[in-house]
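Exam review. A common question shows you a sequence with its structure tokens and asks you to describe the fold in words. Practice with the pair below. Do the first one on your own.
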Amino acid sequence: NAREVSVIGSFNQWHPKMHRLRPRGNSGIWEGFIPGVGKGALYKFHIESNHHGHQVDKADPFGLFHEKPPRTASIVWDI
């Protein structure tokens, strides 16, 4: 039910309009590529809902590394 999804992080000063993702048809999957993001960069997904303009920043549910609580960003890592 997302209207728009972007990647925000330490590499773009957490700006939600810089790295927008594209929907893959009606699959619910959003995709994109961000060049130059290196190991250790912090990131989250910025999600804008179709419902009442609600916005939320979420960590990567499939990310392997995350900040220690109470911080919540995911961390880019070389595996």
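Now try the second one, then compare your answer with the model answer below.
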Amino acid sequence: MKRRIIVKDIRKAKVSGLLLVFSVLIVTALTGGSNSLCLAQSDSTDFDLFSINDGPYVMQQSNSAHIAFYVCNGFFESRSFGVDDTIRFRGFCHDTNEVYAVTTREYEIEPDVIDTVSRILTVSDIHGRYRLFEDILIKSNVIDENRHWIFGDGHLVINGDVFDRGAYVTECLWLIYRLEQEARIAGGAVHFILGNHELMILQGDNRYIDEKYMKGVVAVTAMKHEYLYGRRSVLGRWLRSKHAVIKLNDILFTHGGIAPSLPEKDLTIADINSEVRKNIDLDKESPEMSAHARYLFGSEGPFWYRGYFYEMEERYPQATADDIDNILSYFDAEKIVVGHTGMDQITAFFDNRVINEHQTLDSLTTQALFWEDGNFYRITSSGETQLIN
């Protein structure tokens, strides 16, 4: 029998996020019913809480258990699992056709420089637009109609900004998570590069998240949004294992860009990624944050830099061709692929040495960038392949 607990005003609820989760389990144990709870805000007159479906979120509940939970039609639904290296379960909300294989141990740090890649498909700035993301992966022959990996030993690069703006961030994350597993089995790989919006979410900046998450998920769970991706969260630990910069063959990938000032810091790609991981949970004003991390998280760091395309007054000038030469020489690379700064379509700059793959969010379509045998191609939303000159 399903039990429903309704709190008229979330501001009157005196329970913290994790305590609320445990309270639901206690209620279930006492009633013998399933875990179902709804927190409805009395002042939300224009938001349909009961249409919200989101999840799963998988979190460490104790040293001996994990909990998977959803907001399902506006109600909290959860199940507990014993600790194992991998938790397997079928979705139990809007996703009953999905089977999740969730790693509960710490995630290994993947290589950030790989020299033997045969094919690369990259997209950026998905921003929770799940259908566009799924569609371009199908059109690019990375996944089939059932959303399974068919790209063989190819490498898929997600070049930052899966989070914010759109209403299907969770679905995008779990698709990437599963494709990473399937690609590894097939001899390929998925690389999820952290963008500025991943950084913002992990650091508690929620200015750009869809109302579904603030008025729906945060309200129902009574958890701060950043707690959903904290270090006790499976997705949170997974995200913290990701890189800010990678190099595949002779191509650099990063979300915003490599500023001309970065080589002056005498950091390798491994150094950059290590500094980001070690400092990502620190407050910007924390005295514990390293000087290098403060630079990397700033306007000239790889998350935020836009200087390939225009100057930022009082911050930095627009990059020159000589700047690009110096950056590429420093990292022993031939090309840089970035997102972050919106364009009408995937476009090459600086004599094809810089490629921006972020199609402006005003567009109702998206594109992918494909590399093979030394050539870059634009794949359009219709599936057309265009050589980039």
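Model answer, second protein: Residues 113-194+242-387 form a domain with the Purple Acid Phosphatase; chain A, domain 2 fold (CATH 3.60.21.10). The two ends are 63 Å apart (CA to CA). Full marks require stating both points clearly.
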